[in-house]
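Quick start: read one record
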Amino acid sequence: MAGRRAGVADLCGPRLLSNTDLIAPAELKAALIETAHALGFDQLGVTRPEATAERAQYFLDFIASGGHGDMDWLAREPQRRTDPRTLWSEVRSVIMLGVNYGPDEDPLAVLQARSHGAISVYARGDDYHDVIKKQLKALARWLVATASCDVKVFIDTAAVMEKPLSQAAGIGWQGKHTNLVSRGFGSWLFLGAIYTTLGLPCDTPEIDHCGSCRACLESCPTAAFPAPYQLDARRCISYLTIENKGPIPHEFRKAMGNRIYGCDDCLAACPWNKFAQEGREAKLAARDALRAPSLADLAGLDDPAFRALFSKSPVKRVGRDRFIRNVLIAIGNSDDPTLVASAERLLADPSPLVRGAAVWALAQLLPPEAFAKLATTALPSEQDQSVRDEWRLASRE
């Protein structure tokens, strides 16, 4: 659990000089934990910056395999990611923090409502980057004011290996799905980091508690795990719906179902989640409008309406066209003939990415004769080759 005082492995530094008094490192850490909880953090652990050295090769192998897909920033200057001291040479302690975002309902229930879209749990409320960064900065300001030091704050936007650092700090362990698993909160933790020049007592690293369980691996709709603890992002629905800028590869379209932003299957399958549901309140509430939105309503969004609906949401970062692409794949998987009109209207969309996805959706929903008739009127006026290819491929299926 966060802030446990037992299991402190050693002291990373000497007594600390505050503005007025000498404070013992353990006393400072206890106050740090109390303050973190008051600010809304659920877990806190401390580790050395060199603690993840043994995990560096796993990351380098992942990049070498190409498993990161088009996420080029991961491959940029890998040394900065594998060693915190390369990012900031003065860091002496790394404070890792976790915030519970466990859902208050079955996150996979929406997958059965195929005329509605499934948005990943973490994206159903305000952007966690903005919310948690404010908390991290507040905690960092307290630490600077309490004990003279320098700090740097990170929340999933810099070259920081949050999950290995969190395991080294005792918060949880990297499960077979490569995400962090906590004994107290299952697979539902947002992570943040504070690098500091202070020497603080280090927590005992967490051990792997996955055992023989393969629930997360077997739950993946696209077989994105070539082996336990290995992810091929190019097959991951979260990657395909968020990071992928082009058309959804045909081999994954059916498997996407109605997942229109991210995928929770491997997270939701984790047996450790039962502890996250026992009286623990998620800190970031879901918006009702994003729990199971109607595909028909989403398909009608133009850019201003998209921006308004997803204001302060991480979904907004993918842009309207990529999002509507995802919605159209879900429409094609819906088996709902009432959605034909929504898809047909988008054949005239300015975006070739949207038009191509609309072609595929209509090919799934319309009888072959009706689709062929539609192709004879729409294909001659289509100028984009990628969309023309979608028409031809769909006509042959």
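Residues 153 and 194 are 5 Å apart (CA to CA).
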